[in-house]
């Protein structure tokens, strides 16, 4: 079960959602892989902290190393699992990001390596029960690669008018990619994030999305300073604050996702 968390709008909580859902999945006993395709590396930093660039050369790390072995005259044949890191959490693994992905992007795109992530994750199918892919906030080579590799896409929505307008453009881009590259990709749902139940606008926007027939998850994620504390501590909420309200909301959302997983395996 491979899920990509994607929105072309920045600041909607992609990293927080990807890491916390993955951490819950791992805590429930599923071998879970997180793939960090955002050159900013926020997911990598969240789960394992700062990386020593001298000890781990950029071209040999995670996603960058995985892609690097597919280009040039001396191609390597290392199994994709060789680029996966362990995290401090049982059952939770990471394909880390690297700043070098920025300079690699043009070469990868020109050589049409858009399917390489899909091929790598297919080789890892037997190793991991759940895969969560964090993406950059743009419809670029890496986000397209993720959408081609995934079974489902989760769309974070942060409840403002600009988010709603960008959502329509996002759905159009996903539809075009489904048509051209991955007809099996499904929009699993829209994740309402940073929801303020006391304000009128968020409720109105969500109601409008539901009226249009868009798949909105019933579990809403509220704003909380606890998330910032979680980032700073490099500890997902299920580990840092298992009884917190926001953790409970993530657990409810994860339960909704597992219903999809159960249906898919029947």
Q: How is this structure best described in words?
A:
By secondary structure, the protein is α/β, with parallel strands linked by helices. The chain has helices spanning 14-27, 42-48, 62-68, 101-110, 116-123, 141-149, 161-180, 200-211, 225-233, 237-240, 245-264, and strands at 2-5, 32-36, 85-86, 92-95, 130-134, 152-157, 186-192. The protein has a 7-stranded mixed β-sheet, with helices on both faces. The longest helix is centred in the middle third of the chain and has 20 residues, at 161-180. The radius of gyration is 18 Å and the shape is globular. The model has no long low-confidence stretch (mean pLDDT 91).
Helix content: 40-55%
Q: State the fourth-level CATH superfamily.
A: P-loop containing nucleotide triphosphate hydrolases
Task: Report how far apart the termini are.
Answer: 13 Å
Estimate what percentage of residues fall within beta strands: 5-15%
User: Which structural class is indicated by helix and strand composition?
Assistant: alpha/beta
Reading side by side through the largest sheet, how are the strands ordered? 3-4-2-5-1-6-7
CATH class: Alpha Beta
Q: N-to-C SSE series? A: EHEHHEEHHEHEHEHHHH
The biggest sheet amounts to: 7 strands, mixed
Residue windows where pLDDT falls under 50 for at least 5 positions: none
Please state the average pLDDT score: 91
Number of domains: 1
Number of H- or I-type helical stretches: 11
Assigned CATH architecture? 3-Layer(aba) Sandwich
What overall geometry do the principal axes of the alpha carbons give? globular
Query: What Rg do the Cα atoms give?
Result: 18 Å
How many DSSP E strands?
Answer: 7
Q: What name does CATH use for the topology? A: Rossmann fold
């Amino acid at each position: 079960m491979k899920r990509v968390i994607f929105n072309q709008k920045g600041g909607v909580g992609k990293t927080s959602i990807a890491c916390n859902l993955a951490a819950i999945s791992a805590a429930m006993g599923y071998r879970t892989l997180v793939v960090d395709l955002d050159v900013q590396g926020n997911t990598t930093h969240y789960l394992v902290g700062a990386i020593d660039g001298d000890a781990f050369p950029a071209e040999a790390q995670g996603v960058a190393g995985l892609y690097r072995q597919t280009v040039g005259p001396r191609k390597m044949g290392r199994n994709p699992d060789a680029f996966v890191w362990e995290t401090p959490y049982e059952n939770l693994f990471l394909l880390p990001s690297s700043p070098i992905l920025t300079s690699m992007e043009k070469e990868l795109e020109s050589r049409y390596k858009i399917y390489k992530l899909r091929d790598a994750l297919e080789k890892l199918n037997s190793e991991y029960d759940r895969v969560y892919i964090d993406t950059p906030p743009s419809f670029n080579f890496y986000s397209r690669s993720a959408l081609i590799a995934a079974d489902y896409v989760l769309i974070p929505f942060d409840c403002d008018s600009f988010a709603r307008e960008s959502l329509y453009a996002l759905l159009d881009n996903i539809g075009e990619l489904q048509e051209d590259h991955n007809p099996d990709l499904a929009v699993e749902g829209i994740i309402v994030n940073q929801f303020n139940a006391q304000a009128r606008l968020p409720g109105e926007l969500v109601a409008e999305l539901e009226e249009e027939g868009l798949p909105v998850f019933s579990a809403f994620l509220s704003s909380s300073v606890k998330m910032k504390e979680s980032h700073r501590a490099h500890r997902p909420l299920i580990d840092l604050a298992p009884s917190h309200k926001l953790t409970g909301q993530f657990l409810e959302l994860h339960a909704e996702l597992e219903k999809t997983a159960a249906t898919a395996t029947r």
